[in-house]
Amino acid sequence: MDEMCELAADSLEWLSGWSASLHVKHGMGSISSAVLGKCLDQLPRNLRSYVDDLPASNQSPAPRPPVTMPFLAQSFTRFSDLPAELRLKIWDEAAAGPSMHIFDVCFPSWRSSGRSERAFQSADGTMSRSDHDRWTKYRECVFLDTIETGPAELARQTSVARHVYDPSAYRMRQTMRLVCSEASAAVAKRMREGGINTVYLPGRNEKMQYDNDEDVVFLRFRDGGAITDLSHGVLFGEFEASGMNGLTEVLEGPWSAEVAETLRDARCIALDVAETWVPSAVGSVLSEEATYLACCLHQGLRVLYLVDHCHGRCTRCKRRGTASGQLQTRGVLYRQLHSQGKDDENDDGAVMARTPDLIQGVGKTYREVFDFEGLGWSDAHPHYVFARAMDESIRSQQADADKQDFQGVRVLLVEDEVVGGVDTTMLMDCGLGGGASEGNARGVRNMSFRWLA
């Protein structure tokens, strides 16, 4: 026992000058102060009390093969000397969820964005013969790809969020698998313990699996109004849907077989709230848009998240000063949105007492908020109208299929985290302003959604 205490004390000594300088939740081979804190809390309290008093060790670490880390600015070189139990707990925390996985939705568009083709191109913009042959199989359908990032993406004129670095957790876990056998085992263990869903990336000829019980797939359409383009492209015949029978099959016509499989099984899906409306035409498109999306997403869906990137960064909508901690009061709008599908007071009480969801990305934290009035929404705000329309449509379509898994539409705010060695810059200019959009959205409230009765 004395030997173990001495080893634990040595571990704390090595960590004392290192962990405080890191702020990332988990960083491929380097471990964050948050993760270490959870693990070290399980050590005897008298050992933890030494942390502030112990000087950093000058002992040279044992040599080991170098590991290349994409965003590793500082590393704890003596991590391998920690007790095995502590190392395993740290890796388990690093692999823990819930996590956010973000993907670009690539689809044919008359706007000639070229996004579909770029998914199959190499870094220098060229496309091999084999890649071109594969692209021809997907050029007329919707598929998923890793999100575009970097300076060119930041400079793009759009009303939705643009990133310098991909905050998706799946990429971090892919690297964790390469760090060491213990890290790989921690990732594999998490996958074994939960249900699995698969995301296919045909442009890269890859697939990614994630924990379908906890994690969230974030579908990024890349432009405000892109969802409208997609739904109307199907409804009005711009997309080929030959060989399909029935309304559902026609609506699902442009989706690739792989995307259809992913969405059919996905339990938690997120959308960028800025992509869900067109200021000049909200009233005329929202009904069809919600019905179309619900038809594509409803089958296994448990939660639909609407992600708001504006707070703290948007230069147009004047909502820079509000933090998620100030938006935890459940007001009238929240109660109205979550009153659907509640048969008794016990159900309503559970909704009102539920703790906010917290989803982790790399350099981003997605926190649920309840105070929609604090977001600047009203019952005629296009984001709120879209949320209620989607809630009604998904519940209705699940009821028609004799399935009631849907727990509702929830709203997440995005918060930045400091990650050593990573540029986590994200730009947002939503363009939301004026009363025209709310005036158009009021027209939707007079349509045939049952929640209007």
Give a brief description:
InterPro entries: 2EXR. The protein is built from 17 helices and 14 strands.
Describe the fold and architecture.
The chain has helices at residues 2-16, 33-40, 45-48, 84-95, 115-118, 129-138, 151-155, 169-179, 181-193, 226-235, 246-251, 257-265, 282-297, 332-337, 345-353, 382-400, 436-445, and strands at residues 26-27, 30-31, 100-106, 143-146, 162-163, 196-201, 206-211, 216-220, 268-272, 303-308, 358-360, 364-369, 408-416, 426-427. The protein is of the alpha/beta class. The protein has 2 domains: 2-60 and 80-95, no CATH class; 100-452, no CATH class. A hairpin with a 3-residue loop joins strand 11 (358-360) and strand 12 (364-369). Helix 2 packs across helix 4 and helix 8 (169-179) packs across helix 9. The longest helix has 19 residues, at 382-400. It is globular, with a radius of gyration of 24 Å. Mean pLDDT is 72; it is low at 1-5, 7-34, 43-73, 238-253, 280-285, 433-441 and 447-453.
SSE blueprint:
Blueprint: H1 2-16, E1 26-27, E2 30-31, H2 33-40, H3 45-48, H4 84-95, E3 100-106, H5 115-118, H6 129-138, E4 143-146, H7 151-155, E5 162-163, H8 169-179, H9 181-193, E6 196-201, E7 206-211, E8 216-220, H10 226-235, H11 246-251, H12 257-265, E9 268-272, H13 282-297, E10 303-308, H14 332-337, H15 345-353, E11 358-360, E12 364-369, H16 382-400, E13 408-416, E14 426-427, H17 436-445
Parallel strand pairs: 3-8, 8-9, 9-10, 10-13
Antiparallel strand pairs: 1-2, 3-4, 5-14, 6-7, 11-12, 12-13
InterPro entries: 2EXR
Domain 2EXR: 76-188
Protein name: 2EXR domain-containing protein
